[in-house]
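Here is one chain, start to finish.
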Amino acid sequence: MFSIRLRTVSAALSVLLLAGAADAAPKPKTEDPVAIKAAAASPLSARALEALYSGRTWKWKDGGGYFSADRHRFIAWSQKGRVWSYAQGRWYATDSGKLCLQAYWVSKTGSSSDTTCFLHREQDGVIYQKRSLGGSWYVFRNNPPRPTDEAAKLLRGDRISKGLAIMKAKAR
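Its structure:
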């Protein structure tokens, strides 16, 4: 009888400890100062993420992606030498600071669906960002913003459709 009670109490304590850990704020796994600051920051709301990305093109080294305000459509293209790809899909934001791109990518070698998500946190006007899976936190936008910020690569308007049309023509 004693052993059954001990197991029951032990199981109950385990559940309580696990439940408490699930609600805890994200803790940095290293002594990385940016990760520590990001952990102390608050997630951006869906509304804040939409204001940041909607109607803008995120320019990348070898292409970019456009976040349409119209039905959250997402289009992108990338080209490195003769290797190219393009994507069409949707984007969405959550109140937990997550921005996700769900797109169907096409290239010379094939096609596939992919979802990529980024986490965003903000404190004192500084926005931190990282890929949701396996990424490291970095300063996305300083306060005050700097020309070298990644957020400075978010340009107003659609700068992707023209390149996308060229990529689609190459795919035929």
